[in-house]
Amino acid sequence: MFWQQLINGLTLGSTYALIALGYTMVYGIIQLINFAHGEIYMFGAFAGLFLVTRFGVNVFVAMLGAMIFCMLLGMLVERIAYRPLRGRSSRLSALISAIGVSIFLSTLMVLIRGPQTDRYPDTIEISSFSLGPVQVSSLQVIILLVAALLMLGLQVFIHKTKMGKAMRACSEDLDASSLMGVNVNRVISFTFALGSALAAAGGVMVGLYYNAVWPYMGLMAGLKAFAAAVLGGIGSIPGAMLGGLCSGVLEIFGVAYLASSYRDAIAFGILIVVLLVRPQGILGKPISKKV
Amino acid sequence: MIVMEQYLTQYIDPYYVRIAVLLGINIVLALGLNLITGVTGQLSMGHAGFMSIGAYTAAIMSIHAGTSFGISLLGGALMAAAFGFLIGVPTLRLEGDYLAMVTIGFAEIVRVVFLNLDIAGRAIGLSGIPSETGFLNVWLVAVLVIFLNTRLLKSRTGRALYAIREDEIAAQASGINTTFYKIFAFVIGSFLGGLAGGFYAHYMTYINPQDFGFMKSIELLNMVVLGGMGSIPGTILGSVVLTLAPEMLRMVAEYRLLFYGGLLVLMMIFRPNGLLGDVRWYDIRKRLARNGVKSYGTA
Q1: Residue B298 reports pLDDT greater than 50
Q2: Residue A263 to residues A225, A256, B41, B117: CA-CA distances in angstroms?
């Protein structure tokens, strides 16, 4: 029972982690809670679905297509709704703008295809095998593997490439990096693209795993992923991964051992308790205020 | 008062009366949130949580304890204020977005708890709440709240709250007890949220946990930011605009929310500090007076 729930929790958690990465990267650089991120994830799930049903492509190809689509979407959103505000308005106005985008995108999806729930066709054969006492489905293995690969790739990218270095510099100090010749706008745009691509991958995998995609799926997933990012320490990339996995596992355990009807409250309850003990999150660095 | 209420509902289109009542409720809600977020600068994204606590407490008191409307309202408001205190004390260590997350989480937990509470009717919601709220009592309270809020913000306490928003460390260095004032803002803000919730419950006569979801909190935050953070006239204007906007946008039917979302983005691009930035009643009066003198002088 325990190990079974752990596997289920890790599967859910790895999708939270993929979404949380987008929140944390954007936050790390421009201190904006990108509320439209949940909707990007939803668009990713639908883009994948569209590719699978219309063109009958392989799920992995569909995931790749969804990632590319969401990259463009993320950059477009940043360009239209956030860049004009940057530097001349408070962070709260940017937040409201993000909320506006979020409402806009979810309504747009309802207008495009109606509010009903759709399911992914059975394109991959799901076999389950037992690993000792645990039943693992091949889908869970795929999700865990893909998530692990993407996160590993992200780590390599952030630490080994020039753009990754620029991103780290920007999250350290935006103005100083701009003075050092980093093209800040390009870095921010790229950060949005990267975060959106990861969210799209998460969207396709959740769509496959729960066999359901609907236009409002982004709201709760976005909130929980944001909670996961905060739990891990917002702005910290390993923190988002850890936070995502932790909240997925704890949510599944909460449902299994406590009360299933309190599912949505569990994630937030844990978060509040952790923040009260460690206000900067698990891996976040305490910020010393400059006077 | 009952006679006047009847007079009103007889001669004015019930549709307009309904919008006016909801506007009054929204103004009280938004002024409460304005105190926390606009004036004191503590980003709260869970104001609907306080509203739902007030609504459910007042409704349960009216239905099960048979208390009078006034007592139920007060009970709901006090209960919300108590939770505001409970949330306010430990969260003072948190800042900015961490606080935002805790308030979102709090409102979500409140929603899920009401979804599972037998006395609150679970997911079916609570119906059969006596219909007590009318145009007059809502607006009487709303005007009173506006007046008291204006007085409060002009007082020593109000200036202390503004100081915390501008620079917490400087405020502390100037001898302001920031802990006390932050809790104070939270308690008063959630009291107003609970009060408005009670009015809402006794107007709709039916409430459901989904009425007080994340989107409701966001709508309230939009009112405060859109109007102008920390400004009472601004918050009122924001409430008016965002209460009327969905009604006006009815003509675009299913594109309503699309426009709403797009408008939020455009507003923030063109008026990033809200419609009325930090304008206070005083500034408006001054400007009107100045204009008056000018036109007199040039004539």
Answers
A1: no
A2: 14, 10, 31, 14
Put simply, the answer to whether A93 touches B272 (Cβ < 8 Å) is yes
- Chain A hits for B101, CB-CB cut-off 8 Å, are 226-227, 230, 271, 275
Residues of chain A with Cβ-Cβ distance to B254 below 8 Å are 110-111
- Quick one: pLDDT at residue B294? 46
Contact A99 B222 (CB under 8 A): yes
| Torsion A228-A231-A235-A238 (CA) sign | negative
Contacts with B123 (C-beta within 8 Å, 6 or more apart), sequence order: B115, B208, B209
Which residues of B lie closer than 8 Å to A, measured between beta carbons? 43, 90-91, 93-95, 97-98, 100-102, 104-106, 108-109, 112-113, 115-116, 169, 214, 218, 221-222, 225-226, 229, 254-255, 257-258, 260-265, 267-269, 272-274
Mean of all residue pLDDT scores within chain A: 86
Span B56-106, pLDDT tens digits: 999 999 888 888 888 888 999 999 999 999 888 877 777 777 788 888 889
Local structure of residue B155 (DSSP, 8 states): S
Report all structural domains of chain B as residue ranges with CATH numbers, in order of start: 2-298 (1.10.3470)
B294: closest CA of chain A, how far (Å): 33
Q: Which of B256, B106, B70, B93 is nearest to A111 (CA)?
A: B256
Asked if residue B297 has pLDDT above 70, the reply is no
List chain A residues with CB under 8 Å of B268: 85, 89, 93-94, 96-97, 100
Q: Report the pLDDT value the prediction gives residue B295, as an integer from 0 to 100.
A: 43
> pLDDT tens for residues A160-205?
999 999 999 988 888 899 899 899 999 999 999 999 999 999 999 9
* pLDDT 10s digits, B144-170: 999 999 899 889 988 998 888 888 888
Q: What is the pTM of this model?
A: 0.83
In this predicted structure, the answer to whether residue A90 has a pLDDT above a threshold of 80 is no
The H helix count followed by the E strand count for chain B is 13, 2
**What fold is seen in the domain A2-277?**
ABC transporter involved in vitamin B12 uptake, BtuC (1.10.3470)
